[in-house]
Structures are given as C-alpha cells and as structure tokens.
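Lecture 7 notes: from sequence to structure.

We start with a single chain of 460 residues. Read the sequence below before looking at the structure.
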Amino acid sequence: MADYDYDLFVIGAGSGGVRAARLTALDGKKVAVAEEYRVGGTCVIRGCVPKKFMVMASEVSHTLEIAEGYGWSFDNAKFDWPTFLEAKDVEIARLSGIYAANLGKAGVELVHGRAVLKDAHTVEIVGKDRTITAENILIATGGRPWKPDELPGIEHAITSEEAFHLPELPKRILIAGGGYIAVEFAGIFAGLGVETTLIYRGPNILRGFDDDVRAHLAGEIEKRGIKVILGCQHEKIEKTDTGLVNHLENGMKLETDVVMFATGRIPYVKDLGLENAGVELNEAGAIKVDPHSRTTADNIWAIGDVTDRMNLTPVAIREAVAFHQTVYRDNPQHFDYEAVATAVFSQPPVGVVGLSEAEARRSCSNGVDVYVTRFRPMKYAFTGSDERVLMKLVVDADSQRVVGVHIVGPDSPEMIQLAAIAVKAGLTKAQWDATCAVHPTMAEELVTLKEKQSGATSAG
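Now the structure, written as tokens:
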C-alpha cells in the first residue's frame, strides 16, 4: 500500500468539509483540511449566518410600525450601520473560531492556503512551497456569485459578498436577480430605509417555487416599499458624478448609489487542477459525482455546492456524513433529496417543503387536491396593514398524502421545519386533519383547511 501523508485531505473548510474532516479524524484517521479564506465557508462567513443577522436588523423597522398600533411610541429611533457591522463581524469571527477549534479538538490539521490538485493523490498549497499526498481527497469548495462579465459597466456592481461589508449604507440600491438571495437582500435594504428596486428578467420572482408563492410574495414585498420590475434586465451601467445610472432594456434609466447582482452562484472549481487528477465536470460546470459523492477519479470525492445538487448548508452536512459512512465505516450511504424543506428569508419569509402544485400535477397520476388560504395575521389587527399570509397544501388525490406545503408569512421558516417531518413521513391529509389545532396561531390553519380549491383535482 502506498505511503501517504494523510488518510484524507479536504479542500474547503465550509460546513460540509469541516463535518467530513472531523468525523473522519474522530475515527482515528490522519486528516488535514485546507482553506484559502476563513474557516466556516459561505454559510458562516458570507452567507446564511451574516445574512440572517441583517434580516433581523432590518425587520426592526417593521416591528416598530406594528408596535405603534399597540400603543407604543418611539422617539428618535434610528439605525447605525457601522455599529451593526461591528457587532456582526465580531460574532462571525467568534463562530469561525469555534469551527477552527473544533477541527483542532478532533485532531484535524488546518492548512491556511489554496490547495490545487497536482494528481489524484497530490495537492500543492499555493505560495507555501508545500506539497501533500493523501489516500483520499474530498473537494468541498462551495460556490461563488456569478455576474455577467460582458455587461458594460459591470465593474461598478457588487455581489452579495461585498454587500456584507459596504462602508456605508446607501440611500438607493438596485438589485438584479429574482432568486432567494435577491429577494432577501431587497427586504434587508428596504427594511433599513434604503430606496430599493428589484429587477428580474423573468415573468416573476423565485423561479422554481410554486406559482402561488411567487405571485403572493411579489405583491407582499411591494407592500414593504420595494419597487419590482419584471421581464427586464440591464443594457449597461454608467458611472456619473451623482451615482450609477442603470440603463434598462425597456428604456428606463434609474440612478442608484449601489448596484448589486444576485443572478446566481456557480460551483467554485476555477484553477483547482481538476484536470490533473481526472476529475470531470458536468454540463452545468459542477463536479460530476455518483450518488455516493465519488467523482470520476476513484479516490476523490466532492460534496456541497461545488456539485450543484441541492445547494443548502444542511444538505452539505448530510452529504458529509454519508461520505464518511461510505468511505470510512464500510456503510455505503447517500443523501435522500426528497422532501427537503427550505426557507427564503424575504420579508415576509417563505417556507416550502415538497412539491409545487405544477410538479405534483406532473407526478401524481390521478391528479391533486389543493387547499389554499390567505388571511391577515392576528398581529396586524391594530395596524391597518393589508399584508396577508398564504398557506397551501398540495395533496396526491389518489393516496391522499400531503406532498407539498407552501407558506408565505411571519414565522414560516419555523413552521416549515415541523411540517417537513409530516411530509417526509408521508402523512395523509386525514392525519393532518386529525391533529388538534393550537389556537390562536397561524399554524393552526395547516390542520383546519377543509375546502379544496375549486377545480383542484385533475388528471396529471
């Protein structure tokens, strides 16, 4: 057997890479992980965690509006961007430190630097004059924002990564994109008092989500003061003395202080040396893997966003666990991507698990039953707000299993986590109905929906 420096070398210290490294080291294997930036990866450093802090900060303005309806009054309430940034950065540094410490406690060597494959068992740490060999290599480098480099003036635009570190809060921002990152940052900036415009080339935001969710959220975010422009995109960005002029295909010209592109993320595979090790990419530019996360090189594996399967942090962690079980526990496993719940931290937020109505109609041979309700949350009773919650259940008409749950409204991410248990377990609509409601709550609507949407059942 060949003599290697490590049993496992992991490239990328994000949530997936860290989990795989720790589990393998705790099994007594010699493990190292290389990270070119900061330990914690996209989620902890420049993704879900700092973004959630920004969401919570921006929601305060809406909370204050509601509070006034309940008799509270506030004088000179104001938001200070530098104070928030400092608090956010301190917490992110703490979390990154915990990740690094946990690696050390497990016996994992942390290599600070960019690792590049030289062959199937060898990596070079760029600029460190160090070459390392490993029996197995795991690639967990995640993804990076994409911008249309050919667009004139694109050099003046930022992505979500720069949005976490803006030196000052702009007065005006235009966000290009219609996915979850775009709508989340639109809510963040609008909530912090920034004049916010969202532009998307498609017919509606959140492509891939249920059509009722898309339409409902588009209307609700406009109620929060966000200007939404659909079916349109940039022609160019022009820098002037007073700001950035966005020239749009429909002839509009909008001047803003910041232009942010949230037009998708791509697998981070650039200059990794994949070709040196026989690791192939698929047609989408992601690392090609089998169901057990093995690449086209027998001893090299890949998990997380770099494989572009289901780009969610908890999924990357579960893929890491499956990798460890497969390779080091002689217990072949693969993650089950069916009925994975997800949340969009827009304002209001979205929680989804299972199939959209359109997907269910295609997959349920005898049609679907659809149950929908829209109502004003109780917390808005004193405010005069016309904001509405959407709840939707999609049911297989034949088996009566609830195959999709879709919620738009306050606390929907918290509700969808528990609803996901029922959907994953395959519970029927009758079993949902047999569950006693908790009153008064929004969630009780999920177990009290009785009337099918007109014309809901139809052949697939």
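The first strand starts at residue 6 and ends at 11. Keep this in mind for problem set 3.
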